[in-house]
Amino acid sequence: MSNKKQKLTEISEIGEFGLIEHITKDIKINHKNTIKGVGDDAAVIDHGDIYSVVTTDLLVEGIHFNLIYTPLKHLGYKAVVVNLSDVYAMNATPKHITVSIAISKKFAIEHVEQIYEGINLACEQYNVDLVGGDTSSSLTGLAISVTAIGEAKKEDITYRSTANKNDIVCVTGNLGGAYMGLQLLEREKEIFKTNPDFNPSLEGNDYILQRQLKPEARRDVIEILKELDLKPTSMIDISDGLSSETLHICNKSNVGCKIFQDKIPIDLNTEKMAEEFNIDPLVAALNGGEDYELLFTIDITDLEKIKNHTMIHPIGHITDIEHGAVLITTSGQSIALQAQGWNQMKEE
Amino acid sequence: MSNKKQKLTEISEIGEFGLIEHITKDIKINHKNTIKGVGDDAAVIDHGDIYSVVTTDLLVEGIHFNLIYTPLKHLGYKAVVVNLSDVYAMNATPKHITVSIAISKKFAIEHVEQIYEGINLACEQYNVDLVGGDTSSSLTGLAISVTAIGEAKKEDITYRSTANKNDIVCVTGNLGGAYMGLQLLEREKEIFKTNPDFNPSLEGNDYILQRQLKPEARRDVIEILKELDLKPTSMIDISDGLSSETLHICNKSNVGCKIFQDKIPIDLNTEKMAEEFNIDPLVAALNGGEDYELLFTIDITDLEKIKNHTMIHPIGHITDIEHGAVLITTSGQSIALQAQGWNQMKEE
User: What is the residue range of A296's domain?
Assistant: First the structure.
């Protein structure tokens, strides 16, 4: 590599978000039909009445998944779903994906078939066409890159940057499950490594395991919002944990927020496993990530519309920026939200 | 990994093209606006009068590039250009790209900056907006995934599958240079490995080195074709070598072709280096790949239009499928074209 003598700065010093900010700060946009570039769940391109949204993710073996406990079919499914989740987070409908994979020699055709079984299943479930891709060798592990393209009417697109004071903050489903599933898989892996005859005790934990290994994107929520004629004022999907995503909305919208601990939805299975691990389930919900739920804000006058929808939970409200983004604990304390997120680059 | 007991088939048994065919054979297309899925330089999506084309490539360290001799800035530039080349090959204009990178700990911020300098330069040169992406860690080397999205009028899109009997086969620029550049770089690398004090003798070989390290896409050709009001009957870009790409057009169009050896454009620098390496320059042109020139067919009545354009070379014509795809050598022999291509998966 070049510039060996130059003083170098380790990426861990600024982390993933810092790096993204650093490399995107000089990006220039030249085309009038580029409505939104870097900085939301997906880019937005104007095609007349219909806007296209584009999002992409690169999953790398050993970083985003561990093949010791990840079935290849699930991996293919998840690689698609995490991208569709970003499309839904724009209040758009995914229509097309491309998939590139790089595979090392340890993979046989049957392995690739399993990955594509999962990819095709996700395409079927979410009514998405696989329209292209690239297949290549890798000297080391497996890498999967998916790009998803969706569509929405111009007026339906929902950004991160448009939350307003007094809006209600809502989250779908429940949080922290995918993180607890990961903890369980990691624990059983460690035991298995020291004792290969050991039978992993995963029984009874289907829910959190599925949250981790075969997550779903909230297509249903987007459909419900349409039925309710309810357009969120802002929206993002939860891939890095509630804290991190709430801060994204607050930072991009120049607002603060109050999130109430006792309103954050956590499944009983998640709580049970958290207890077993001596982890505060709140931490799993705030910082665990990979739940692929939707976090959005609605105008307070729309609150009535969601009251019969048990999967949508009001968890707080938007405030002036001066009040910061805070969590109000069960005991009434106010704690600043922090973007711990799933920051692999700082973890290293 | 699962299914350890299953009988497994090594990917090398069928190669990259075989694998792609295998995993794409069951793909179903559900959306009416998916005009073209897998099987051309790019996918085509209908957005009314304007069609979008989408293409993606995943470049992996040690397979597609070697950082010993690849400047990171050039790498970023090339990663974009190879995708733009696919967009031009659809007779479309690239407008947007997304870039995902996975980087291991050996990379510092300054290295990532260099990659993005190249990416941004390519965006500037080709008037393309970088609109999204993903940044993540990698346990091993560097991986770059680029998706390019372009636009064309519905009637301008040019596929691989629409060549007709008696059409003239044309190729732009010259062929084999990128391959000879790679041979030179690989040779100097080997010498350098045994003697680190050795100074690589790359001087005077700028042309073929640039062809390998910093190739350009043929935006100029697409513009000239528009000026000439000339729509090719079929088109593809040359990433895997003239043989392989010619066969793609013939197979997809159900035609044969005659390509004449003495018409294949080869630069003097390429010939010189081929001589030094005892490589037949014809082999470099047919099977070398990475030239990113355009290969297209035109109706014979359009031949007049290109005669003053020295960068466009008629090299043969389309025949009935029964005659096969053949090369007519300088001595008059007829040899079947073979898709050696740049088939990493079979090489391993």
Answer: 168-347
